[in-house]
């Protein structure tokens, strides 16, 4: 690929690149690499575990920053001990935010009774998370590039904390609008959270740890959903007395408010912009490059010219949207077949997410070792479809243990697919910013999540749970078929390789 930008002559000059890379003679630049001012270099999806390039730092017209010290910076490769604290704190406040997403839907019938509203109104307390994300993706992505990790982390955790405390003002049946306001604030916080895992992994972790670190970061969000299924039915029993019900709801709101406040304080103390020393050779190269604003519109245009990425956006949205709908409507579906089993409905949701967390960790470790993105994605997608079909036809059998088993199998693949989709997207779109590719995946998930939740909810109300679940099976079948059409990811790579033996085309 020919670089036609005259401002990049300094970067394209072989002596400059040779000087920048002299700390690692075994690294070679692939002949088709083109350094574009709006293109960022990603470390997490390399053909070889140690060949990685950072996504968030763009190659800039200004060339190397402080050339006299670049070689010294490039020679110091060191993993920071703080990296695990950073990803753990992020994972925890992501968990807190995810808990607040599902805390209403997991006891849908109880909140319907307390506020005197319809099931559809309670469903919107979940769907507002999906709706808010869509218009705010690009502004928050710009803020992430402009102000960095620490600022975005502080903003996300602060909004999460604020929303939790606002909900404490909604402990009367006529104050439903206040709880909606608190939930909307938490949904805005979510926008500052969802795009962070791959960025934290690429900035703080070594090349062999990136996919695992990304899975750990996503793990917190899934754990929050799991706790959101388990805890609300225990803390808020299905009782008729409004005052007693308000008391139990207040306990839940106070707990989550206290946890959110503690996590905000920990973010202030623990979260740093980046480690003192780069964690990988590719990161050390990015440290030596100047940074400036990314060209988001041109990046989006390039992404949507990538047919494989467009297919992945659709397939990821279908899978994640089905998960969102299933999570939101689970309480309603279980209660229809097993009246009075609110606690077990929550435990079924817990089983789905816990199994999915295990699947997410396994897929992250597997990708770090194998780099078989398409093959793994296709197998997981097909198994998700199989799990959904089995769950659909066993939900009404009258045996809760069967539902636990089939729901857990479904969750292992459906939820385990989520971080896998992020990693595959970065692999397909390299060297575009991973924040942009993962953000567009999330937009697709939110759009399909809203469509599926509304549609399946109406089908369940009119025809029952089986037709509603068959509705999801149809779209998961479509997603599996489209996943099979994805081309080889190697054709899209513009990366640094460890020697000619690891080049892929």
UniProtKB/TrEMBL annotation:
One of its GO terms (cellular component) is mitochondrial membrane. SUPFAM superfamilies: MFS general substrate transporter. Coiled coil: none annotated. Residues 42-68 are annotated as: Disordered. It holds the Pfam family MFS_1. InterPro entries: FLVCR1-2_SLC49-like, MFS, MFS_dom, MFS_trans_sf. GO terms for molecular function: choline transmembrane transporter activity; heme binding; heme transmembrane transporter activity. It catalyses: choline(out) = choline(in); heme b(in) = heme b(out); ethanolamine(in) = ethanolamine(out). Residues 86-491 form the Major facilitator superfamily (MFS) profile domain. It is a multi-pass membrane protein. Keywords: Cell membrane, Endoplasmic reticulum, Membrane, Mitochondrion, Transmembrane, Transmembrane helix, Transport. It is found in: Cell membrane; Endoplasmic reticulum membrane; Mitochondrion membrane. GO terms for biological process: heme export. PROSITE patterns: MFS. It comes from the Eukaryota. The chain crosses the membrane at residues 84-104, 124-144, 151-168, 174-198, 210-231, 251-271, 307-326, 346-366, 378-394, 400-420, 440-460, 466-486. Gene3D superfamilies: MFS general substrate transporter like domains (1.20.1250.20). Belongs to the major facilitator superfamily. Feline leukemia virus subgroup C receptor (TC 2.A.1.28.1) family. This is Choline/ethanolamine transporter FLVCR2. It comes from Urocitellus parryii (Arctic ground squirrel).
